[in-house]
C-alpha cells in the first residue's frame, strides 16, 4: 500500500538507527550502554518512524534479527507515545504497518501484528479505517497464505488488546468511511475459515470469534446460528487447540445467547461431558468451565432440568478428575519438601504480592470480596488445572442444586475415601470441602461423623492429604461454630440444647487443635494450608475462639521461629486475622510478649528494600492494633521507628523534588508502612498514646501526607488522621482548618475515581471523626461545602458501599454540630441521605446520622415534607435504637409531620407510598 504520508526519512538517519540496532544485538555488546543510547533516541519525534521504516521496508538491507529488534522497540514505544502521536509520523507508521501485514517474513508479520494491536488499543478502531478493509480482504482463504496469516495474526492480537470490542452502530462506521463496524466486516469472513484445512487457521478463526462474541454486533445477531453450527462442525476436530476453542465458544454462547443453545442442549451437554475425558488436558479444563457457566446463565427451568438429568453421570466424572495426576508438579514439590523440610527457600519460590491497604469505616463497615476458588490458601503451588476446575464446577453445581447432589455424590465419596491410593482419598476429601457451602443442610447431620473421619487424616503420611484436610475442615467452620454457640446466641442452631452446644464446643476444640498442630507441620505445603484454615476459622468464629487464644498464640509464635521465607506471608495473614477477629482476649500483655519481640527482631535484621519487610510491618501493625494496651512496653520503640521512617521518606521526597537525590531514592512504600504503623498504635492504644504523640512530629507528618499527590499515601494518611482524632484530638486541633480543607478537597466530584475511591473513603471517615470532636464554631465555615460534597457522593450511581455509609454518617455528624447552617439544604439532601441511612447497621454511628437528620428537621421541618416517604422508610430500618434521645427525636419527627399534614394525608401516605411492613413498624415502635 502506498504511503499517504509526507514524511521523508534522511538517509543518514536510517543508517545511524540501523547501525545502532546492529550493534545492540551483537552478543558481546554493552547492552546497558546500547539501551541507554536507544532511550536517548526515543526522545526524537521521528525515531519511531525510522524504526517502522527499518521493520517494514528494510528488505535486502537488514536481516530479520535487526528488523525484529526495530519492531520490538517500536512496539514498546507505541505503548506510551502513540496516543500523542502527530502527523506526518502517525500516517507514515500506520501505513507502513498496515502494508506489511502481508510481508513474506513471518517474523516481520508477527511484530507488525503486535504493533497494529497497540495502535488500535491506544486510539480506537476508528483511527485506522483502511486497516479493516484490508484485513477483511486478506481473510479470503483463496488469497496468498502470507496475507491470510498476517490478517489473522493482527486481528487476533487486536481482539486481545481490545477485549474483542470492535462493535458500533453503522452511522459511526460510516463517519470513518466503513460500510459497517469492524466486527461486522470480519465476522462472515472469519466464519468461513472454520472449514479451512490448516488447523492453525481454524484455531485462530475460532479464537477470534470467541473474543468478539461478548460484544457481537446487533445487526449480525442472526449469524450467531452460523457461529454455533460452525462450532458443532468442529466438535471432534483432530486439532487439540481447535477443540479447546470450541469448548470456549460454547461457554461464551451460554453467556451471550443462551436461547440459541436450548434446541440442542442435550447434544451440547453430552459433548461437554465427553470432553471431560479428552486426552488433551487443556480441552478437558475448558469443557469443565461449562458447568459453572451453565448454572449461572439465564436459562429457563426446563433447561436446568435437562442438566439435572445428567448429574448422575457428571458428578462421578468431576470426582475422578479431582484426583492429582501422577506427574503433577504440586505433588512432586510437596513430596520433595517432605524429604527436605529444612531446605532453604529459593528466590524463585517466592511469589510477588502487593500490599493490601484497609479502608476505614465507622463501626464494622466495609465490603466483602468474592474469592477465586482454590483448594487451599497457597496458590503459589500450581496453576489452574483440571483438578481445580472440576472442584470449582462441583462447588458451583452444589450451590445451585443443593442437597439433592448428595445422594449421587456421597456413595462415590465414601467408596473413594476407602481407596488405598492416596490420590483418590485426597480427591474425596477435596470434594467434601467443595460442596460444604452448597450442601450445608444435607451434610449437617453427618458433621460429627465427618469430623471423626477427617481428623485422623491430618496425620496422614502424604502431605497433600494433610493440607487438603486442613482446607476441608476450615470449610466446615460455619457449621462447627454455629453448633458450638449457646442456645441464646442469635446465630445458634435453632432448637439447640445446652448438651448439644457443649458437644459442639468440644467438636470445635478438636478441629481447632488439629489445625494448630499442623501449623508447625514439617511440610511447607501443610503449613500453608493450616495457616489458611486457621485464618478462615478465625474469620468465622471470631470471639467464639477466644478461649483458645493461648494455644493459637503459642502455635503462631512457634511458627515465627520455624517458618522460612515463603510461608511467612501465610503466617502473617493468620496473625493479622487473629489480631483483628479474636477480640479483647488478645490484649493480655503476655501475648504481645510472645509475638512482638520476634517480629521486631525480624524488622531490625531485615535487608533494606526486601519486599517481605512490608508484609512483616503490616502484620506488626495489626498485632499492635489488636493487642492494644497489651503492647504498651513495645509502643515507644515502635512509634519512634515508624515516625523516623515517615520523616526520612518525606525528606527524601523533598530532596528528589529539588533534584538533590535521584528519583528512585524515595520509596513511597516505606512511607505507607510507617503511616500504617502509627495508625495501628493510635487505634490500639487509644488515649494511652498521648505520651507518644506529645513531643512527636505526627501533626507535621499528617499535614504533609494528607496533601501528598499519591492516592495510596493520602489513603493511609487520612486513616491515621482519623485514628489520632479519635484517640487524642488535641494533637490535631491546632491544624483543624487545614485538615478539614484537605479532607474536603478529596471529596470533590473530580477526585472520586476508581483509583482514588479508597483515599476518598478514608478522608470522609476522618472528617466524621474530626466533626464529632471539634467545636461547632470551628466546623461552621466548612459545613455547607462538606454537605454539598457528601450529598454529591450519596447521589452517585454505584457508589462504593463503604464510602456511601461513611458519607451518610459524616453528614449526620456535621448536621449535629451545624444544623442552622445546613437546614436550608434539607429538601435537597434528605432523599438520598435517607436511602443511605437505611443500609447502616444499628449502632452509635447510625444514631449520629439520624440525630443529625432530626436536628435539621427541627430547624427546617418544611424541608422534609416532600420526602416523607424516604424519612419514614429510613426510620423504620432500625431493628432497635438503644439511644433514648435519638428514639425520642425520631418519634417527635414522625408525630410532628403527622400533625403538620393531617391524619387523612398521613393515612394516604401509608396506603399509597409505604410498604405495609414499614407502616406497621412505625405504628408499633413510635405510635404513629
Topology:
Elements: H1 11-24, H2 31-41, H3 47-57, H4 64-81, H5 89-99, H6 106-123, H7 129-138, H8 145-162, H9 170-175, H10 182-192, H11 199-212, H12 224-233, H13 240-256, H14 258-261, H15 265-275, H16 281-296, H17 301-321, H18 329-339, H19 386-401, H20 406-417, H21 422-434, H22 440-444, H23 447-457, H24 463-475, H25 477-484, H26 498-519, H27 524-541, H28 549-562, H29 565-581, H30 589-605, H31 612-627, H32 635-657, H33 668-685, H34 690-694, H35 698-705, H36 711-727, H37 736-745, H38 757-771, H39 776-795, H40 801-817, H41 819-822, H42 826-838, H43 844-859, H44 868-876, H45 884-901, H46 903-912, H47 916-926
InterPro entries: ARM-like (IPR011989), ARM-type_fold (IPR016024), HEAT_type_2 (IPR021133), Importin-beta_N (IPR001494), Importin_beta (IPR040122)
GO molecular function, one term: small GTPase binding
Region (Disordered): 337-379
Question: How does this model look, in words?
Answer:
The structure is a single chain. With 928 residues, this protein is mainly α. It has a domain at 235-323 and 382-444: Alpha Horseshoe (Leucine-rich Repeat Variant). It is 68% helix and 0% strand. It contains 47 helices and no strands. Helix 43 (844-859) runs parallel beside helix 45. The longest helix has 23 residues, at 635-657. It is globular. The N and C termini lie far apart (81 Å). GO terms for molecular function: small GTPase binding. It is found in: Cytoplasm.
Amino acid at each position: 500500500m502506498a504511503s499517504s504520508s509526507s514524511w521523508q526519512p534522511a538517509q543518514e538517519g536510517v543508517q545511524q538507527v540501523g547501525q545502532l540496532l546492529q550493534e545492540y544485538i551483537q552478543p558481546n555488546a554493552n547492552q546497558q550502554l546500547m539501551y541507554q543510547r536507544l532511550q536517548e533516541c526515543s526522545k526524537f519525534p521521528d525515531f519511531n518512524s525510522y524504526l517502522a521504516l527499518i521493520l517494514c521496508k528494510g528488505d535486502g538491507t537488514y536481516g530479520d534479527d535487526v528488523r525484529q529488534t526495530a519492531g520490538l522497540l517500536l512496539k514498546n514505544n507505541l505503548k506510551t507515545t502513540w496516543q500523542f502521536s502527530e502527523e506526518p509520523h502517525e500516517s507514515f507508521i500506520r501505513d507502513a504497518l498496515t502494508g506489511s501485514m502481508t510481508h513474506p517474513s513471518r517474523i516481520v508479520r508477527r511484530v507488525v501484528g503486535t504493533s497494529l494491536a497497540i495502535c488500535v488499543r491506544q486510539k480506537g478502531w476508528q483511527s485506522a479505517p483502511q486497516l479493516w478493509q484490508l484485513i477483511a480482504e486478506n481473510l479470503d482463504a483463496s488469497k496468498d497464505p502470507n496475507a491470510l496469516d498476517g490478517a489473522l495474526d493482527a486481528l487476533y492480537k487486536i481482539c486481545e488488546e481490545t477485549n474483542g470490542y470492535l462493535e458500533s452502530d453503522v452511522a459511526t462506521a460510516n463517519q470513518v468511511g466503513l460500510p459497517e463496524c469492524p466486527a461486522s466486516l470480519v465476522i462472515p469472513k472469519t466464519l468461513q475459515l472454520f472449514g479451512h484445512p490448516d488447523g492453525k487457521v481454524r484455531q485462530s478463526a475460532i479464537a477470534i470469534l470467541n473474543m468478539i462474541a461478548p460484544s457481537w454486533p446487533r445487526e449480525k445477531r442472526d449469524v450467531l446460528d452460523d457461529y454455533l453450527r460452525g462450532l458443532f462442525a468442529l466438535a471432534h476436530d483432530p486439532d487439540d487447540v481447535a477443540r479447546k476453542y470450541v469448548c470456549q465458544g460454547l461457554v461464551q454462547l451460554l453467556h451471550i445467547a443462551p436461547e440459541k443453545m436450548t434446541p440442542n442442549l442435550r447434544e451440547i451437554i453430552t459433548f461437554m461431558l465427553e470432553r471431560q475425558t479428552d486426552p488433551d488436558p487443556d480441552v478437558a479444563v475448558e469443557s469443565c468451565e461449562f458447568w459453572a457457566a451453565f448454572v449461572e446463565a439465564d436459562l429457563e427451568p426446563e433447561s436446568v432440568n435437562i442438566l439435572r438429568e445428567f448429574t448422575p453421570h457428571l458428578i462421578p466424572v468431576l470426582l475422578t478428575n479431582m484426583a492429582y495426576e501422577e506427574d503433577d508438579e504440586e505433588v512432586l514439590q510437596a513430596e520433595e519438601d517432605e524429604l527436605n523440610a529444612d531446605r532453604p527457600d529459593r528466590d524463585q519460590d517466592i511469589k510477588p504480592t502487593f500490599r493490601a491497604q484497609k479502608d476505614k469505616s465507622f463501626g464494622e463497615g466495609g465490603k466483602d470480596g468474592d474469592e477465586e476458588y482454590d483448594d487451599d490458601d497457597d496458590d503459589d503451588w500450581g496453576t489452574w488445572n483440571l483438578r481445580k476446575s472440576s472442584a470449582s464446577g462441583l462447588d458451583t453445581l452444589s450451590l445451585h442444586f443443593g442437597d439433592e447432589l448428595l445422594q449421587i455424590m456421597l456413595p462415590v465419596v465414601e467408596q473413594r475415601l476407602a481407596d488405598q491410593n492416596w490420590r483418590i482419598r485426597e480427591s474425596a476429601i477435596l470434594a467434601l470441602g467443595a460442596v460444604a457451602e452448597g450442601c450445608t443442610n444435607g451434610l449437617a447431620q453427618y458433621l460429627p461423623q465427618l469430623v471423626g473421619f477427617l481428623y485422623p487424616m491430618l496425620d496422614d503420611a502424604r502431605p497433600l492429604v494433610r493440607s487438603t484436610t486442613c482446607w476441608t475442615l476450615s470449610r466446615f467452620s460455619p457449621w462447627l461454630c454455629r453448633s458450638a454457640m449457646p442456645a441464646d446466641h442469635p446465630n445458634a442452631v435453632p432448637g439447640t440444647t445446652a448438651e448439644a452446644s457443649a458437644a459442639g464446643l468440644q467438636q470445635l476444640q478438636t478441629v481447632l487443635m488439629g489445625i494448630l498442630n499442623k501449623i508447625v507441620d514439617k511440610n511447607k505445603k501443610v503449613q500453608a494450608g493450616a495457616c489458611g484454615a486457621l485464618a478462615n476459622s478465625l474469620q468465622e468464629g471470631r470471639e467464639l475462639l477466644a478461649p483458645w487464644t493461648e494455644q493459637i498464640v503459642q502455635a503462631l509464635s512457634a511458627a515465627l521461629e520455624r517458618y522460612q521465607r515463603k510461608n511467612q506471608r501465610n503466617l502473617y495473614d493468620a496473625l493479622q486475622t487473629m489480631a483483628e477477629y479474636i477480640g479483647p482476649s488478645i490484649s493480655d500483655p503476655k501475648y504481645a510478649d510472645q509475638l512482638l519481640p520476634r517480629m521486631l527482631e525480624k524488622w531490625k535484621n531485615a535487608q533494606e528494600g526486601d519486599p517481605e519487610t512490608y508484609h512483616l510491618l503490616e502484620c506488626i501493625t495489626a498485632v499492635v492494633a489488636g493487642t492494644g494496651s497489651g503492647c504498651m512496653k513495645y509502643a515507644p520503640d515502635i512509634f519512634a521507628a515508624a515516625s523516623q521512617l515517615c520523616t526520612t521518606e518525606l525528606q527524601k521526597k523533598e530532596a528528589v523534588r529539588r533534584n538533590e537525590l535521584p528519583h528512585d531514592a524515595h520509596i513511597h512504600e516505606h512511607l505507607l508502612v510507617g503511616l500504617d504503623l502509627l495508625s495501628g498504635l493510635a487505634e490500639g492504644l487509644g488515649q494511652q498514646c498521648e505520651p507518644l504523640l506529645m513531643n512527636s512530629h505526627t501533626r507535621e507528618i499528617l499535614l504533609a501526607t494528607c496533601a501528598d499527590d499519591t492516592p495510596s499515601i493520602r489513603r493511609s494518611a487520612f486513616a491515621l488522621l482519623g485514628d489520632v482524632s479519635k484517640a487524642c484530638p488535641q494533637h490535631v486541633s491546632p491544624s483543624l482548618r487545614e485538615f478539614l480543607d484537605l479532607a474536603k478537597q478529596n471529596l470533590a466530584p473530580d477526585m472520586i475515581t476508581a483509583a482514588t475511591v479508597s483515599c476518598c473513603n478514608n478522608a470522609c471517615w476522618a472528617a466524621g471523626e474530626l466533626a464529632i470532636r471539634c467545636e461547632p464554631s470551628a466546623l461552621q465555615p466548612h459545613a455547607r461545602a462538606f454537605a454539598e460534597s457528601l450529598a454529591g457522593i450519596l447521589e452517585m450511581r454505584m457508589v462504593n458501599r463503604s464510602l456511601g455509609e461513611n458519607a451518610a454518617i459524616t453528614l449526620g455528624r456535621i448536621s449535629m454540630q451545624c444544623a442552622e447552617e445546613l437546614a436550608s439544604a434539607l429538601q435537597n439532601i434528605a432523599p438520598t441521605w435517607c436511602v443511605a441511612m437505611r443500609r447502616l447497621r444499628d449502632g452509635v454511628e447510625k444514631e449520629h446520622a439520624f440525630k443529625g437528620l432530626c436536628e435539621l428537621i427541627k430547624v427546617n421541618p418544611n424541608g422534609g415534607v416532600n420526602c416523607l416517604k424516604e424519612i419514614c422508610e429510613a426510620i423504620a430500618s432500625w431493628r432497635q435504637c438503644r439511644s433514648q434521645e435519638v428514639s425520642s427525636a425520631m418519634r417527635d419527627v414522625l408525630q410532628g409531620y403527622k400533625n403538620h399534614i393531617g391524619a387523612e394525608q398521613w393515612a394516604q401516605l401509608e396506603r399509597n407510598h409505604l410498604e405495609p411492613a414499614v407502616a406497621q413498624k412505625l405504628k408499633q415502635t413510635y405510635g404513629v
